[in-house]
Amino acid sequence: MYFVCGFISWYASAQPNSINSDTSSSFNSNLNTDTDPKGSVDSQFVVISSSDDHRSLVNNKLFLSKPDNTITTAQQALMVFNEGEFIENTANRVSFGFTEEVLWAVLPIQADTTTDGGLSSVIEIDNAWLDVVDIFFISGNEIVRQESLGDTEAISGRTYNARMPSVSHVFAPGSTYVVFRFISQDPMTIPIYLCSEKSKQSVMLENAYFYGFLYGALLILLVYNLVLYTYLKERRYLLYSCYLLAFTAFNFTYTGHGYWWLWGEMPSVQQWLMPTLMLCYITAGVTFTIEFLNVKKYLPSLFARRKFIYAGLLALAVVMLAYGSQQFAIMAQLVILTTLSLWMLLIGVMCYKNGNVLAAFFVPAIVLGTGGATVSSLATWGVVPYSQWAFRGIELGMLLEMSLLSVSLGFNFKEVYKARLSAEFTSRIDPLTNLYNRRAFTQLVYPIWELGVRKKQRMSIVLIDLDWFKQINDEFGHDAGDGVLELVAKTIKARARSSDLVFRWGGEEFLLFLPDTSVSDAKALAETLRLSVKEITSESITTVTTSIGVAAFNAQESGGTKIEGLIKVADKALYVAKQKGRNCVVVG
Ligand SMILES: Nc1nc2c(ncn2[C@@H]2O[C@H](COP(=O)(O)OP(=O)(O)OP(=O)(O)O)[C@@H](O)[C@H]2O)c(=O)[nH]1
Fold first, then answer.
1. Whole-angstrom Cα distance, residue 13 to residue 99?
2. Atom number of ligand 1 nearest to Cα 482
3. What whole-number percentage of the chain has pLDDT above 70?
4. Is the distance from the beta carbon of residue 578 to the nearest atom of ligand 1 less than 6 Å?
5. What is the rounded distance in angstroms from the CA atom of residue 257 to the CA atom of residue 271?
6. Disulfide: which of 7, 105, 169, 221 matches 334 by Cβ 3.0-4.6 Å?
7. Which of 500, 514, 481, 479 is nearest to 435 (CA)?
8. Which of 397, 426, 455 is the last residue before a domain boundary?
9. With a 6 A CB cut-off, is 579 part of the ligand 1 pocket?
């Protein structure tokens, strides 16, 4: 809001009175404007006829000082106003862009009452970032009251406890001239409301709900993504969280919440936090975009030049500090921020074209964020009627943007999870035979082994080695050898029980772990396998025989045996089978 307002109103200010928007029709019946057809200054009063519920934007009833004025005091302002030297704000302008000048404004108010107590009303400037907001109440050429409410003044000096500069005043019967003095290094945006105490309270409540919802939703997104980061250790979740946090902190500052609640006694902190957080927000936005869109893969040439972007931002920070001008800092960053939105969109579209699926979420998200900001700016500019909801467009847009980005990160989470599962699965599977590989052995067999030992169950191991396999490779080629290995694996798998675990143990070596299987059953299975392999392979390129070693765990005899010991026994038996001339089963 802050930056788009500033940037657009900067241009808007170059075209004064270009937009006509009359909000007088929205005035409450208790708050009337009395304008005579000639538009003479004296009759241009806002009339308060009762202290009942009312709330209206009164910018179109303001009279504004001319550029280059030399006014220094409120009385002088009133004098110049009475001479007809103020400009009537019939265009209902709210925003005046960046200006070094002091802006004086006069709001003539008529309290239409005869009671001595007068009529109470609250004046509220619906903008928390203005540096100087001095309000003078002048009756009968006397300043009857003065308030200083800008954010260069400590919060404790305010008589009305509200986030937006506000003052409650009892208007004496007759006319009161409210003279405003505005100075701001930030965009000069001055939506002025006149309202009853009751409506002021209900607006504050509405705001509390709105920001409670906004910050609550942003907090949920933040926690959700931090949890994902902790779990997945993927940088994009962390960078999204930083981007979200930077936006929230920046918003918390320019909406005046931080100043109202946390650092209200430190005006200089408020002054410098805004440009500083804006820079953090820009940097977080750039970093997040690069990571989220995987620019390294989809736009490598840009990725190679990213250092220049960061160097530029760092240079800006240095110049900002060295130059020491808050206004310069803000203006420079407004330009960059506007460019950033367009840059993010462009990069998103380019990455999408280059095949990045996540960009399909990213582009609409940025469009929503930028769209909300545009609504806010147009409201400030006067193209759409100014209202608090239109003013909040940026916040609603950002909430949608952040939510959509979070959804896309959730989508990414699903993809990453699937990829991990498949990587985990493939890391345990031998790609040629689709049997478990040696790495899976520890994970799968150890728990069953431990349980079997505790329960004193019988368990066996069968180690199968193909005979003269080197010759098969040499004679028929490596591919044909692969085909034989696949066939043998299928045969073993088909003959084994579903509770048996079959591993490709080495090049042409297979291991079966048989839970709850006695040595005689294991030997019988080994014989079956030997015959099956021989028989089945005879139908392929050549007949393949196998040598098999069997070892069994017996709780009574081999109590303390470890599984590695049992494998060694099977290995020795296999060696003996080879020694005996191959194509046989030996029990160890
Ligand atoms: N085609 C193919 N061959 C493999 C693979 N893994 C290992 N081998 C081959 O298997 C052969 C094993 O040879 P040796 O260890 O001499 O054993 P052998 O020829 O079967 O002789 P014995 O075991 O003594 O009967 C080697 O030539 C390896 O290159 C594989 O995945 N595919």
1. 9
2. 1
3. 90
4. yes
5. 14
6. 7
7. 500
8. 426
9. no
Distance of CA 71 to the CA centre of its chain: 47
CATH number of the domain encompassing residue 512: 3.30.70.270
Q: Locate 541 and state its tokens.
A: 């390129």
In a shared domain, residues 497 and 554: yes
CA of 437 to the centre of ligand 1 (A): 17
Q: Is residue 42's pLDDT more than 60?
A: no
In this structure, is the dihedral angle defined by the CA atoms of residues 425, 430, 434 and 435, taken in order, positive or negative?
Answer: negative
Q: Count of domains in the chain?
A: 3
130 and 228 part of one domain? no
Do 246 and 394 fall into the same domain?
yes
Residue 12 included in any domain? no
Side chain identity at 137, as an amino acid letter?
F
For residue 579, what are the domain limits? 438-587
To test the pocket of ligand 1, the residue of 430, 473, 584 to mutate (highest count of ligand atoms within 8 Å of its CB) is: 473
Residues 33 and 109 in one domain: yes
- State the residue for tokens 């193209």: 383
Task: Give the pTM.
Answer: 0.66
Whether residue 432 is contained in a domain is answered as: no
pLDDT (0 to 100) of residue 346:
95
Q: Are residues 71 and 105 in the same domain?
A: yes
Mark residue 64 as left, alpha or beta (left: phi above 0; alpha: psi -120 to 50; beta: remaining).
Answer: beta
323 DSSP assignment: H
> Which ligand 1 atom is at minimum distance from the Cα of 473?
1
Both 368 and 448 in one domain: the answer is: no
Mean pLDDT of the chain: 87
> In ligand 1, which atom is closest to the CA atom of 467?
25
